[in-house]
Specification:
The chain is mainly beta. Helix content is 0%, strand content 39%.
Length: 164
């Protein structure tokens, strides 16, 4: 998650064992899915009534790992884009993104937060690793490392026509 009403397009990426990545250009890797690609302000503006635009203020992306595949995982946040608020009819703000809060949460058999870290990104095109962890064959999460630095999102992974 990042600050409500922040218009930066930040992306959550997960590097799976074996090297496959889950993120906005590959949202379903079979064992893991990006449930929503939140694009900051893009797609968050709607019409409340005649001439009255509304904004969905919440910025949140969620990736779900749906199978136990043992190995090392890395979780990164990438600053993909920052649209001009003037183009959206919203007063311009500082384009630097707010800190991003990344949580690792286990859902079964009960809800349990395993790790949490704030990552602060710079300009468009920067990324930061929130944490790395191991998933064991019995489903336990071990070796959570909030100091790992594993950059793996490349600018070439952007969809055609997208720019930074």
């Amino acid at each position: 998650t990042w600050a409500d009403h922040n218009f930066s397009d930040l992306d959550l990426w997960v590097l799976l064992p074996g090297g496959r990545k889950v993120g906005f250009t590959d949202q379903d890797a079979g064992i893991a899915t990006l449930d929503r690609d939140d694009r900051g302000a893009l797609g968050d503006v709607y019409q409340q009534g005649p001439g009255a635009p509304g904004v969905i203020p919440v910025n949140k992306e969620t990736t779900v790992i749906r199978a136990i595949v043992p190995g090392r995982y890395a979780v990164n946040v990438y600053h993909f884009d920052h649209p001009g608020e003037a183009d959206l009819g919203i007063p311009e703000k500082d384009p630097a993104p707010d800190p991003v809060r990344v949580k690792l949460t286990k859902l079964n058999p009960r809800l349990e937060e395993l790790a949490s870290r704030t990552v602060t990104l710079g300009k468009v095109g920067t990324q930061g690793t929130a944490f790395c962890f191991d998933l064991e064959t019995d489903g336990r999460v071990t070796n959570v490392d909030t100091s790992c630095d594993t950059p793996f999102v490349a600018g070439g992974e952007q969809p055609a026509g997208a720019g930074t």
